[in-house]
C-alpha cells in the first residue's frame, strides 16, 4: 500500500480569479500588448499589415480603458498625475476594528500588529483563539475593549478610553457582522434588532464617535466591510441583505458629506464587498461545492480580504473593493431581463444556500437552547 497521501490536484486551486489575474498581466496589459506589433514589425511585417494594425488598435483601446480607470481614481481622491500620495506611516496609526475578536477582524488585528500598528479591538468577546495566544508578542499592540457596538453608551465609553490610552484613532474599520439565516416569517424582533444593530447602526455610532477628529485633521481612513449580499438579494437572507445594502448607500453618502460639506476630502473611505468568506459566520451554510461554483464563485480565504484592506490603507485612496471577481458583475444584475436575472439566480443556487443553516457567531442569551447548543 502506498503510504504517501494523494497529491492535491492542481485544478483544485484554479478559479476565475486566477484566470483574470493572469489575463490582466498579459492580454489585458498595455505593457504586454505593446510588444506584439513591435515584434511583428521587426519580423518583417509592414506597418500597414492587418496583424500590426489590429494589435496596435487593441493596444490603443487598452490604453484608453486604463487611462479612464486611472483618471477616475485620481478624480475621486484629488490625486496628481505626477505625484503619488505621501508614504503611509504604519507606525503612527491607531486603528479601531469592530468585530476584531474572530474571523477577518482577528486576522486583520494580528496582521496590523505585526507592522507595529496600535490596534483597538471593539467586540463583546475578547480574542481567545490559539492563534492569538501563540502571538504573545502582539499583546502590546492589540488592545481589547469590551463593547456592544450597537449601543451608543458603550461605544462612547470605549471611544473615551481609547483616546485616553492610545490617542485619537486614524483608521476605523467597521467589520462587525451577524447573520440569522431565517425566513422573513421566522425572524423575531430580537433577531431584527441584533442584525440591524450590529450590521448597520453600529457603523453610524462608531462614525459619530471617531469621525469628527478625522474631519478636524482632514486625515484618516474609514473602511466599511459590507457584502455582495448588499448588492443582490437572496432567499432566507432578507435582514442580512437589507442591512448590508444600507451600508453601501451610507458609504456613498459619507463620501459626499466629506467632500462637499465637511471639506475633508483627505479622509478616505473604502467599501469592501466580499463574497463567501471561509469564516465561522457562514460556516454552517450550504454553499455550493460543484466544480462550476468553485470556478466561478470561489470561497475566499480571510487573508485575501485582509490583504485587500491593508493595500487600500497603503494606497491612501478611496475605493470600492469587490472580492472575488464575480462580485464585480453583481451591480448589473438588476438591469437584466427578468428571465436572465432568474436564470443567474438559479445558477448561483443562492436561494437554497441557507436551508439548514445553524448560527455560530453572535448567538444571544435569549435564543432557544437548541440553537445555542448547535
Structure, described:
This protein is of the alpha/beta class and about 375 residues long. The chain is about 45% helix and about 10% strand. The protein contains twelve helices and seven strands. The chain has helices at about 15-25, 30-40, 50-75, 105-115, 130-135, 150-165, 190-215, 240-260, 290-295, 300-315, 340-350, 370, and strands at about 95-100, 120-125, 140-145, 170-175, 220-225, 265-275, 320-325. The chain has a seven-stranded parallel beta sheet with strand order 3-2-1-4-5-6-7, sandwiched between helices. Strand 2 (about 120-125), helix 5 (about 130-135) and strand 3 form a beta-alpha-beta unit. Residues about 1-10, about 130-140 and about 370-374 have low confidence and may be disordered. Keywords: Membrane, NADP, Oxidoreductase, Transmembrane, Transmembrane helix.
